[in-house]
Amino acid sequence: MEIIKPFSQYLAAMLLAPLLPGIINRVKAFFGGRRGQPALQLYFDLYKLSRKTPVYSRTATWVFRAGPVTGVCALVTALLVLPFAGRPSFLAFEGDFIFLLYLLGLARFATVLAALDTGSAFEGMGASREVQFAVFAEPAFFIGLAALARVGGQTSLSGMFGALTPETWRVAAPVLALLTAAFFIVLLAENSRVPADDPNTHLELTMIHEVMVLDHSGPDLAYILYGAALKLWLFAALIASMVLPRRTGSWAGDSALFLLAVLGVAVAVGVVESVLARLRLTKVPYLLITAFAFSALALIFQVGR
Amino acid sequence: MNTFAELIIVVVILLDMALAVTGSLSGCIRLVAVQGVVAGLLPLLAGGGAAHGARALVFPVAIVTLKGVVFPWLLLRARDRSGARKDVEPLISYPASILLCLGAFIASSWLGSRLPLPETNVAWIVPASLATIFTGFLLITTRTKAITQVLGYLVIENGIYIFGLALFVEQPMLVELAILLDVFVAVFVMGIAIFHISREFDHIDTAELSELSDWRRGEYGK
Amino acid sequence: MPFCLRGRPGAPARAGTYAAVAASLAGLSAALPVLLSGEPVSVSFPWSVPLGSFSLVLDPLAALFLVPLFLLTGLGAVYGAGYLKAYEGRKDPALPWAAFNLLTAAMLLVFTAVNAVLFLLGWELMAAASFLLVLFEHEKEQARKAGFIYLAAGGAGALLLMAMFALLGAGAPSMDFASFTPPAGGAASAAFLLALAGFGLKAGFIPLHVWLPEAHPAAPSHVSAVMSGVMIKTGVYGLIRVLAFLRPWPEWWGWLLLGLGLVSCLGGALFALAQHELKRVLAYSSIENVGIILLALGLGVVAAACGADRLASLAFAGALLHVFNHALFKGLLFMGAGAVLHAAGTGELEALGGLSKRMPASAALFLAGSAAACALPPLNGFAGEFLVYIGAFRALNAPGPVAIAGAAAGLALATAGALAAAAFARAYGVAFLGEPRTERAAGAHAPGGLMAGPMWILAVLCLGSGLLAPLLLGPLAFAVGAGFGPYYGFLWGLEAMTPFLYVSAGGFALLGIIAMAAAKRRAFLGGREPAVAGTWDCGYAAPSARMQYGASSFAQPLTDFFQPLLRKIGRYPVISEYFPAKASFSSEAQAVFYNSVYMPAAARLRDLAFRFSWLQHGRLQIYILYIVVTLIGLLLWKL
Questions:
Q1: Which chain A residues are closer than 8 Å to C382 by Cβ?
Q2: Most buried one in B119, C390, C524, C544, CB count within 10 A?
């Protein structure tokens, strides 16, 4: 019986992840007074792209072909440690969030190298901005996870999120509120959402993530879009588990609430994207340092408790 | 109730950090006003939600009115009359300010654990108050406008007020009245002074004000 | 031996190589059993030097350091045989080979000596041999300057070590380590500080690092691999031995080590991002990794001083595992850089590009090394840092100041990891990917089998150490026990095994998933051939290789943010006419510590010394007068 629950959780995450960008786009369309794309659009796009023949540049080497594959696989492996509704997935061990953090780093490394492989100025520019944001986002994310570890006295992701109950919110509300804010800012930065990056911009000089994948096509682009959806799911799942800790005892009830919370996070991202304007590039590190300050405050509060 | 008071303390600290990084002068003034109001409401909650007599209510109401309404109005008026630019003109960058504020909080927590103080039922009052005092000093030393000096002084006063709450179970009225009068006079006088200074010298930039003496480098006799 | 064969062409190189490989194999066969079984081995010879005794002990800690030594020197010798072929006819190979073998022998002495005199002898031999190798290209002024700074640092370090040994051995019958008595209180702290400074000048953490970015790039690449992989670890080894001797540890020692480690790891990664020469990037990365090792050591000492001994042993194990892993991937990286130098003639990042097409195997191996250096799973860099992270997180959940140490260590590791990932993505991307920026890079050729073979072996070892990390934990426990006391060795043994098994499982899962995804992609393509065209680049019609993002432009967002620390100097063109024909811009990150700390201090010292220059006037009579005066003074003093 131990294999069915994690397996179905894993399958649910893999299948439902492409829904999130669709929901964000629908919310943005609603704010814009439009009808917008169907929420299932990404599924159709992935299907269409997988049937196309890619075009490769003469400058590119095997690194260009390996980049999308490595990126999406790192994220799929990260799903192996991600808790679902506070319950562990296949792998749960002490320090597994370090594994998660470095898998995300691997995905970023692969994407950056694939971008530099094209020998184009635009992609190099996107890669350079991407690594800059990572330098500021990683400490914020890491210290947030450290604070969360200290809240429950746990050192594995499923332990940390499994130990959260509505009682925790009553006792340690400021810590969790600060952490939610910090993780949300990191989500916006890592998934290239406004105010860190505008996913709908058409000007290459203003793009960050978009421009890194400019030359990919066909199944490679499908992998990249799917990987981006998985990354969004990853961060949304963490925030959802924190905001709505498990309250019912049953697996089905918790999972349903969790899925609703994840969709709720997507809606929140959509609202933020519609309401805020994109920040100047030089100010995005300041935003991430603010997230770091929130996480650090949460950690100090928790250590002093 | 305790958690609620703790939440208020967290809000105070967040306001400190926001003050350290705000770029606009009116934003700064409003943040200081909010912080004053929040600090003024604190005694009502830290008392444990017990029944408050009319006497105990007069005081917080007075403080809230003074810090939330009167001071911001005076300062905004001084800013408009002096025609100062909307920008705060900080001397250190955003990351440096926020990290200094965070460092001040860490230092205050450490200091708070070292100082021999009576036990309070709200955990973070002492570090929050010390951090607020440090933020006030940060505002005074790293901003160039005269209005921000006043704001820094107000923030320090907020910090001292919260610190006082940590030490006294009930508020001794005389001490509070004295502090309040002090602050009121300071702001009033500073408001007028700024207005006159700017009228005389056309600006309130302290960097240029520091060269007020007769001696001017290379411009002797002018 | 190679020196004697100097006369015959070709022979010295072959003799040197064979001797090195044979010695390495012999050494490995001695060191590995000690590491795997945990039993120390000792051997002793009579020696007539006063206070000295030629006794060597090979305990598991020394074995842990010796295994990478022999691996790197053996593989480096094979690599060097190929690398130095390019210098045939221009340079006499006898001296470099002799110095290389002497270096290996000296390091062996350092790791196994149990007598202070023997230790210092080995230390000085090591410094002398590596100095000869740093001056390999002595016709270049950069190399001469590097050699001088290196000699100065080495000499200062040796002086401090002599003072430390004098302090430790005062009152002892002989200078054997076994006969030293641990000093107490202030003397212990003085000894610790002397050891930290003396060994630090060899290990190369900030602020004692100024010689590293000059010396390591100047030496030939196989020597750089050995220097970065093993020689700086002799400093770490010495520090560990002194720490083990000076138990119990006051807490401030741990905080000092933690602080130094923090500064080194963040500073090293940041400076690596700002360099524009490939080997300098790798040198600063070595500084960063030494910082990580110090960080782990500091965490362990703080934990031990606060009574959390289990935590301390975890942290020490993390430090030692990182020593091992770093040697492997840094050796690989320097060999790759050597291949680049060999092929393109320059290590300047802005002159390279597109080397992956011209030397595909070396590029792939350098990529493996870079991924390991960035601690990406499933390679070995991740395994080492993972152990340190586990220590940091257990510390975080413990009460007391240990939690602060744990939080600081974890934060430093995470930030340095992000910075290092940026630095290596930049170095690899600009050098190997894209289009060649100059003719030299376009004309590069793949290195021969002699150079590629060792790189393959090291890359396989990196992957193996990463995936099979649980197997390393047993020998690691022995090493921790030998290094810090048997109490620490026992404490954590199998406990840390579980997370490592999961990490290995995760690593295998990652590789499996990649294989599946690659197969799926091929299935998607369904036998269709992908089309080939120029880089789309959003429809830009005439891209040129110079338009690519280069090394300094890639790092610019980060280096601009950290400008107060990096102090970049930019030379901007003065454009005055309306249609300027040509302009040039250059920016260079300074060697901040060298220019702002050491040079002014050296200048002040030199001015002070000039005050006494009246003593050196050159007159023979007055020099003899000095001797007579001293003699009379000594006679008066003794009577």
A1: 102
A2: C390
